[in-house]
Amino acid sequence: MEAPAMANFMFATGIENSIPTINDGRTRVDQMEVCGHYRRWREDFDLVEEMGIRYLRFGPPLHRTFLGPGHYDWEFADLTLNDLRERDITPIVDLCHFGVPDWIGNFQNPDFPILFARYAADFAERYHWVQLYTPVNEMFICAVFSAQYGWWNEQMQGDKSFVTALKHIVKANVMAMQEILKRRPDAIFIQSESSEYFHADSPSAIGPAERMNSKRFLSLDLNYGRRVDSEMYEYLLDCGMTKEEYHFFLGNRLKQHCILGNDYYWTNEHRVHADGHTCASGEVFGYSEITRQYYARYGLPVMHTETNLREGPNGDEAVNWLWKEWANVLRLRNVGIPTVGFTWYSLTDQVDWDTALREQNGNVNPLGLYDLDRNIRKVGEAYKQLIRDWRDVLPAQSVCLVVPVVQPSHAGRVDAREQEATAARMAARPVAQTASADEVGR
After folding, report:
1. Residue pLDDT, tens place only, 29-62
2. Each residue's pLDDT tens digit, 331-382
3. Residue 296 class from Cβ within 10 Å (0-12 exposed, 13-18 middle, 19+ buried)?
4. Quick one: 10-427 is in which CATH superfamily?
5. Domain coordinates of the chain in residue numbers?
6. Is 289 exposed, middle or buried (0-12, 13-18, 19+ CB in 10 A)?
7. What is the secondary structure of 36-77 as a DSSP string?
8. Which of 8, 50, 61, 255 has its CA 20 to 30 A from that of 296?
């Protein structure tokens, strides 16, 4: 049997399937709808191929697919995923992106983890060839925006509602991973989580900043079965998490199947004031320094799973940001941190992200590789060139830094025994390894 290809470095983009609700749940904000993907999905996949991209963050919208317990509408998922398979584009399947179907309600619903795990199981059963998953996208941000800031879904504010949403979201992610692994033992989970940092504005702001810098790790600590620090443990219990709920996360550790996917934007660093309020600080440390902190904590291979910047009046703002983020990725590899992928997010411009999807203003944000008429932007040309320049260089510089990906064209040739053997090897070591810290790009 022909050996499946290995992913040396995953250059990716994404097609966002955000579906939060606003206006007390009465209004659904559907990015695939407003960006025209439901009508133009074939054209969008053509653009992915035009870019030379072989990895796509993509998933069917949960609210249109998951109609009730055991009740699904797979039509759009079948059309799109089977087309990606024919093109041999590897999807990183995003199952839940910032919202749930109306019949589930919101992230305060304690039944969400069980319901979502059943959905993940049936999805993996149907699409047996899919190997890469992001079960729940940006768990921390989803809980903060929905249940602490009061922007989306339950639109609640407070620590107790935040912890309730967080424990349900992360438990859903863990249970989904368990169900997928039962059906695809060599599945790999690429977390897409926001990487944050909080800077103290003054000596009196050090305490609040330290607490926020501990809190930013909660979703991944729970997801990876890592014991939280004593202050965060007290915080979780004070806000309604039981000891039994906490020990569920410690007892269901699937870290060995994961890649630490982290997202970084200009807004990911914050300035903290003495009274605890925050504002965007802009880029202070940058992606490489903050990723070092996350890598030191979790010790997992890294993938830069989201970044972008608006194309501004000069026309080169996004291009310069792409160059800067790529330089940060190379820096991580140069110092020996196993970094396996990079993503410009997303393929096309997005709508109303300037208000974090809290309002429906119809504002087109020029963030994509292509505009909404599917004309390539300057950053799209730059990313296409970057991929051409680097895709054959990185493997040669680190021949052991590979991810055991079975590409769609090989999926039918891999039998269950081979999957189980791959899974056993993965359980014995991290998903990706690096043989040396040889520098690239000097």
Report:
1. 999 999 999 999 999 999 999 999 999 999 999 9
2. 999 999 999 999 999 999 999 999 999 999 999 999 999 999 999 999 999 9
3. exposed
4. Glycosidases (3.20.20.80)
5. 10-427
6. middle
7. THHHHHHHHHHHHHHHT--EEEE---HHHHEEETTEE--HHH
8. 8
